[in-house]
Amino acid sequence: MKSLEDLNALKQKSLDELKLRESKDSVRIVVGVGTCGIAAGAREVVGAFLEELAKRNISDVSVTQTGCIGLCVKEPLVDVVIPGQPTVTYGNVDASKARQIVAQHVVNGLVVGEWVVNKL
Known about the structure:
42% of the residues lie in helices and 16% in strands.
């Protein structure tokens, strides 16, 4: 940071990101990063979601982390929450699948059925 303008720009970016996280009207991607999720590659999955959203210049989708979702055998588990629609949970997500979930589900509204996990 070299100037007050740089600091103000960083502050505004942080405030915008915080507002997005708190908004109930935005699309959310929630990755399970409990111990079993981390062991199965959840950190890489989070990174892949963030990279793909940035690559597509999508700024109104939040990527958050949560603890254990359950179903350890299906980790990493990812919930895609779109307001007004049922939450969709994907299992055994890797970086490649994360990118495809952004492209198909988040951008085009098409659930990738073969990766969906029934949590009941």
